[in-house]
Specification:
Elements: H1 2-10, H2 13-33, H3 39-61, H4 65-72, H5 75-85, H6 87-98, H7 101-106, H8 114-126, E1 131-135, H9 142-145, E2 149-154, H10 157-163, E3 174-178, E4 181-187, H11 203-214, E5 218-222, E6 229-233, E7 236-241, H12 243-253, H13 258-266
Parallel strand pairs: 1-3
Antiparallel strand pairs: 1-5, 2-4, 3-4, 5-6, 6-7
Protein backbone atom coordinates (compact mmCIF):
# COMPACT_ATOMS: atom_id res chain seq x y z
CA UNK A 1 0.00 0.00 0.00
CA UNK A 2 2.83 2.39 0.82
CA UNK A 3 4.30 1.89 -2.65
CA UNK A 4 0.91 2.48 -4.26
CA UNK A 5 0.41 5.63 -2.20
CA UNK A 6 3.88 6.83 -3.16
CA UNK A 7 3.08 6.26 -6.82
CA UNK A 8 -0.18 8.20 -6.55
CA UNK A 9 1.58 11.10 -4.86
CA UNK A 10 3.96 11.66 -7.78
CA UNK A 11 1.17 11.66 -10.41
CA UNK A 12 0.47 15.22 -11.54
CA UNK A 13 -2.24 16.75 -13.71
CA UNK A 14 -0.24 16.18 -16.91
CA UNK A 15 0.03 12.47 -16.09
CA UNK A 16 -3.72 12.28 -15.44
CA UNK A 17 -4.45 14.03 -18.73
CA UNK A 18 -2.10 11.62 -20.50
CA UNK A 19 -3.94 8.63 -19.01
CA UNK A 20 -7.35 10.06 -19.95
CA UNK A 21 -6.30 10.71 -23.55
CA UNK A 22 -4.86 7.21 -23.95
CA UNK A 23 -8.01 5.72 -22.42
CA UNK A 24 -10.16 7.66 -24.87
CA UNK A 25 -8.04 6.54 -27.83
CA UNK A 26 -8.29 2.87 -26.88
CA UNK A 27 -12.02 3.18 -26.16
CA UNK A 28 -12.62 4.88 -29.50
CA UNK A 29 -10.61 2.26 -31.39
CA UNK A 30 -12.44 -0.63 -29.72
CA UNK A 31 -15.86 0.98 -30.16
CA UNK A 32 -15.27 1.14 -33.92
CA UNK A 33 -14.92 -2.63 -34.00
CA UNK A 34 -17.80 -3.44 -31.67
CA UNK A 35 -20.63 -5.15 -33.49
CA UNK A 36 -18.68 -5.66 -36.69
CA UNK A 37 -17.60 -8.92 -38.31
CA UNK A 38 -14.15 -8.25 -36.85
CA UNK A 39 -15.34 -8.47 -33.25
CA UNK A 40 -14.38 -12.17 -33.12
CA UNK A 41 -10.93 -11.34 -34.51
CA UNK A 42 -10.65 -8.65 -31.84
CA UNK A 43 -11.04 -11.27 -29.10
CA UNK A 44 -8.29 -13.30 -30.75
CA UNK A 45 -6.06 -10.23 -30.91
CA UNK A 46 -6.60 -9.51 -27.19
CA UNK A 47 -5.80 -13.16 -26.43
CA UNK A 48 -2.55 -12.74 -28.36
CA UNK A 49 -1.64 -9.76 -26.17
CA UNK A 50 -2.36 -11.71 -22.97
CA UNK A 51 -0.33 -14.70 -24.15
CA UNK A 52 2.57 -12.46 -25.09
CA UNK A 53 2.50 -10.61 -21.77
CA UNK A 54 2.16 -13.84 -19.79
CA UNK A 55 4.99 -15.45 -21.71
CA UNK A 56 7.24 -12.46 -21.02
CA UNK A 57 6.53 -12.54 -17.26
CA UNK A 58 7.16 -16.29 -17.04
CA UNK A 59 10.35 -16.07 -19.13
CA UNK A 60 11.69 -13.23 -16.96
CA UNK A 61 10.93 -15.10 -13.74
CA UNK A 62 12.72 -18.21 -15.06
CA UNK A 63 15.58 -16.05 -16.42
CA UNK A 64 15.09 -17.31 -19.96
CA UNK A 65 16.83 -14.36 -21.61
CA UNK A 66 16.23 -15.36 -25.22
CA UNK A 67 12.55 -16.17 -24.75
CA UNK A 68 12.01 -12.99 -22.73
CA UNK A 69 13.62 -10.95 -25.51
CA UNK A 70 11.29 -12.48 -28.12
CA UNK A 71 8.15 -11.89 -26.05
CA UNK A 72 9.38 -8.42 -25.08
CA UNK A 73 9.56 -7.38 -28.74
CA UNK A 74 6.44 -9.26 -29.79
CA UNK A 75 4.43 -6.03 -29.61
CA UNK A 76 5.71 -5.13 -33.10
CA UNK A 77 3.99 -8.18 -34.57
CA UNK A 78 0.86 -7.46 -32.52
CA UNK A 79 0.61 -3.94 -33.94
CA UNK A 80 1.11 -5.21 -37.51
CA UNK A 81 -1.56 -7.89 -37.01
CA UNK A 82 -3.93 -5.24 -35.67
CA UNK A 83 -3.44 -2.95 -38.68
CA UNK A 84 -3.81 -5.78 -41.20
CA UNK A 85 -6.84 -7.51 -39.67
CA UNK A 86 -8.85 -4.38 -38.91
CA UNK A 87 -7.87 -2.18 -41.86
CA UNK A 88 -11.35 -2.33 -43.47
CA UNK A 89 -13.09 -1.36 -40.23
CA UNK A 90 -10.87 1.67 -39.72
CA UNK A 91 -11.25 2.62 -43.38
CA UNK A 92 -15.04 2.63 -42.89
CA UNK A 93 -14.67 4.64 -39.67
CA UNK A 94 -12.61 7.28 -41.46
CA UNK A 95 -15.22 7.37 -44.21
CA UNK A 96 -17.96 7.92 -41.63
CA UNK A 97 -15.87 10.71 -40.13
CA UNK A 98 -15.71 12.36 -43.52
CA UNK A 99 -19.51 12.23 -43.71
CA UNK A 100 -19.81 14.71 -40.82
CA UNK A 101 -21.57 17.97 -41.66
CA UNK A 102 -18.38 20.05 -41.37
CA UNK A 103 -16.46 17.93 -43.88
CA UNK A 104 -19.45 17.63 -46.24
CA UNK A 105 -19.45 21.40 -46.54
CA UNK A 106 -15.73 21.42 -47.35
CA UNK A 107 -16.03 18.73 -50.02
CA UNK A 108 -19.21 20.08 -51.68
CA UNK A 109 -19.05 19.28 -55.38
CA UNK A 110 -20.69 20.25 -58.63
CA UNK A 111 -23.40 17.99 -60.02
CA UNK A 112 -23.46 19.11 -63.65
CA UNK A 113 -23.21 15.51 -64.85
CA UNK A 114 -26.11 14.21 -62.77
CA UNK A 115 -28.81 15.17 -65.28
CA UNK A 116 -27.07 13.25 -68.10
CA UNK A 117 -26.58 10.27 -65.81
CA UNK A 118 -30.26 10.25 -64.82
CA UNK A 119 -31.36 10.47 -68.46
CA UNK A 120 -29.29 7.42 -69.32
CA UNK A 121 -30.50 5.41 -66.32
CA UNK A 122 -34.15 6.22 -67.04
CA UNK A 123 -33.90 5.10 -70.68
CA UNK A 124 -31.97 1.96 -69.70
CA UNK A 125 -34.61 1.13 -67.10
CA UNK A 126 -37.43 1.59 -69.62
CA UNK A 127 -35.77 -0.67 -72.20
CA UNK A 128 -34.42 -3.14 -69.60
CA UNK A 129 -30.78 -2.57 -70.45
CA UNK A 130 -28.56 -3.77 -67.62
CA UNK A 131 -26.03 -1.34 -66.18
CA UNK A 132 -23.58 -0.88 -63.33
CA UNK A 133 -22.30 2.64 -62.60
CA UNK A 134 -19.97 3.52 -59.70
CA UNK A 135 -19.41 7.13 -58.65
CA UNK A 136 -16.22 7.83 -56.73
CA UNK A 137 -16.40 9.95 -53.58
CA UNK A 138 -13.47 10.23 -51.18
CA UNK A 139 -12.09 6.68 -51.40
CA UNK A 140 -10.04 6.34 -54.64
CA UNK A 141 -11.28 3.71 -57.10
CA UNK A 142 -8.05 3.58 -59.11
CA UNK A 143 -7.48 -0.09 -58.32
CA UNK A 144 -10.82 -0.89 -60.00
CA UNK A 145 -10.27 1.57 -62.85
CA UNK A 146 -7.12 -0.42 -63.69
CA UNK A 147 -9.24 -3.55 -64.34
CA UNK A 148 -11.21 -1.90 -67.15
CA UNK A 149 -10.70 0.24 -70.24
CA UNK A 150 -9.84 3.90 -69.73
CA UNK A 151 -12.41 6.23 -71.32
CA UNK A 152 -11.74 9.67 -69.79
CA UNK A 153 -14.78 11.22 -71.40
CA UNK A 154 -17.57 13.61 -70.51
CA UNK A 155 -20.63 12.13 -68.83
CA UNK A 156 -23.35 12.07 -71.49
CA UNK A 157 -26.49 9.97 -71.69
CA UNK A 158 -25.52 8.77 -75.16
CA UNK A 159 -22.07 7.56 -74.10
CA UNK A 160 -23.42 5.72 -71.05
CA UNK A 161 -26.12 4.00 -73.09
CA UNK A 162 -23.57 3.06 -75.75
CA UNK A 163 -21.29 1.45 -73.17
CA UNK A 164 -24.10 -0.72 -71.83
CA UNK A 165 -25.62 -1.66 -75.19
CA UNK A 166 -25.97 -5.43 -75.30
CA UNK A 167 -23.08 -7.37 -76.88
CA UNK A 168 -20.68 -4.43 -76.80
CA UNK A 169 -17.25 -5.32 -75.34
CA UNK A 170 -17.72 -3.24 -72.15
CA UNK A 171 -21.38 -3.82 -71.30
CA UNK A 172 -20.76 -6.55 -68.70
CA UNK A 173 -18.42 -4.53 -66.49
CA UNK A 174 -18.86 -1.42 -64.37
CA UNK A 175 -18.58 2.17 -65.53
CA UNK A 176 -16.69 4.39 -63.08
CA UNK A 177 -17.28 8.13 -62.78
CA UNK A 178 -14.60 10.26 -61.13
CA UNK A 179 -14.58 14.05 -60.74
CA UNK A 180 -17.60 14.40 -63.00
CA UNK A 181 -16.08 12.41 -65.89
CA UNK A 182 -16.30 8.82 -67.07
CA UNK A 183 -12.94 7.44 -66.05
CA UNK A 184 -13.25 3.85 -67.26
CA UNK A 185 -15.69 1.15 -68.37
CA UNK A 186 -15.74 -2.63 -68.27
CA UNK A 187 -14.29 -2.58 -64.76
CA UNK A 188 -14.37 -5.56 -62.41
CA UNK A 189 -15.78 -4.92 -58.93
CA UNK A 190 -15.55 -7.11 -55.80
CA UNK A 191 -18.56 -9.31 -55.06
CA UNK A 192 -20.19 -9.21 -51.65
CA UNK A 193 -20.53 -12.39 -49.61
CA UNK A 194 -23.39 -10.98 -47.54
CA UNK A 195 -26.06 -13.63 -46.81
CA UNK A 196 -28.70 -10.91 -46.43
CA UNK A 197 -29.06 -10.28 -50.15
CA UNK A 198 -31.96 -11.89 -51.96
CA UNK A 199 -31.01 -14.94 -54.02
CA UNK A 200 -32.73 -13.54 -57.08
CA UNK A 201 -30.10 -10.80 -57.36
CA UNK A 202 -27.40 -11.31 -59.94
CA UNK A 203 -23.72 -10.46 -60.28
CA UNK A 204 -24.31 -6.75 -60.97
CA UNK A 205 -26.16 -6.23 -57.69
CA UNK A 206 -23.62 -8.24 -55.71
CA UNK A 207 -20.76 -6.28 -57.28
CA UNK A 208 -22.51 -3.01 -56.42
CA UNK A 209 -22.92 -3.98 -52.78
CA UNK A 210 -19.40 -5.40 -52.68
CA UNK A 211 -17.84 -2.12 -53.81
CA UNK A 212 -20.01 -0.11 -51.39
CA UNK A 213 -18.79 -2.34 -48.55
CA UNK A 214 -15.12 -1.73 -49.31
CA UNK A 215 -15.34 1.96 -50.32
CA UNK A 216 -17.66 4.94 -49.90
CA UNK A 217 -18.60 4.84 -53.59
CA UNK A 218 -22.21 5.30 -54.69
CA UNK A 219 -23.20 2.52 -57.10
CA UNK A 220 -26.23 2.51 -59.42
CA UNK A 221 -27.60 -0.76 -60.80
CA UNK A 222 -30.17 -1.24 -63.56
CA UNK A 223 -31.59 -4.75 -63.74
CA UNK A 224 -31.47 -6.41 -67.14
CA UNK A 225 -34.41 -8.68 -66.27
CA UNK A 226 -36.85 -6.19 -64.73
CA UNK A 227 -35.45 -2.73 -65.47
CA UNK A 228 -35.52 -1.99 -61.73
CA UNK A 229 -33.21 0.81 -60.56
CA UNK A 230 -31.22 0.14 -57.38
CA UNK A 231 -28.64 2.08 -55.41
CA UNK A 232 -25.89 0.56 -53.27
CA UNK A 233 -24.23 2.67 -50.57
CA UNK A 234 -22.44 1.75 -47.34
CA UNK A 235 -23.08 -1.96 -47.90
CA UNK A 236 -26.85 -1.55 -48.28
CA UNK A 237 -28.95 -1.97 -51.41
CA UNK A 238 -31.92 0.34 -51.98
CA UNK A 239 -34.17 -1.26 -54.59
CA UNK A 240 -37.08 -0.21 -56.81
CA UNK A 241 -36.13 3.46 -57.04
CA UNK A 242 -37.84 5.88 -59.41
CA UNK A 243 -35.72 8.40 -61.35
CA UNK A 244 -36.93 11.11 -58.94
CA UNK A 245 -35.95 8.98 -55.92
CA UNK A 246 -32.54 8.38 -57.47
CA UNK A 247 -32.03 12.08 -58.17
CA UNK A 248 -32.85 12.96 -54.56
CA UNK A 249 -30.52 10.28 -53.19
CA UNK A 250 -27.62 11.29 -55.45
CA UNK A 251 -27.83 14.99 -54.63
CA UNK A 252 -27.65 14.15 -50.94
CA UNK A 253 -24.97 11.46 -51.13
CA UNK A 254 -22.74 13.43 -53.50
CA UNK A 255 -23.22 16.67 -51.53
CA UNK A 256 -24.15 18.66 -54.59
CA UNK A 257 -24.11 22.42 -54.09
CA UNK A 258 -27.56 23.98 -53.49
CA UNK A 259 -27.54 26.00 -56.73
CA UNK A 260 -26.92 22.78 -58.68
CA UNK A 261 -29.89 21.09 -56.99
CA UNK A 262 -32.17 23.96 -58.01
CA UNK A 263 -30.89 23.78 -61.60
CA UNK A 264 -31.66 20.06 -61.87
CA UNK A 265 -35.04 20.46 -60.17
CA UNK A 266 -36.05 23.06 -62.77
CA UNK A 267 -34.86 20.79 -65.57
Amino acid sequence: MSQLWGLLRIINLIDMLDILVMTFIFYFALSLLKGTRSSVALRGWVSLILISFGGYIIAKSLRLTGVAYIFGNFWIIIVLVFLIVFQNDFKKALTDLGQMRLFRAIFMQSGEYIEELLKAVEVMSTHKVGGLIAIERRNPLQVYVATGTVVDGAVTAELIRTVFTNLTPLHDGALIIRNGRIEAAGCILPLTDSPDLSRDLGTRHRAAVGLSEETDAVVIVVSEETGTISLAVEGKLHRALTPDNLHEQLTQLLHIAPEEREKHAEA
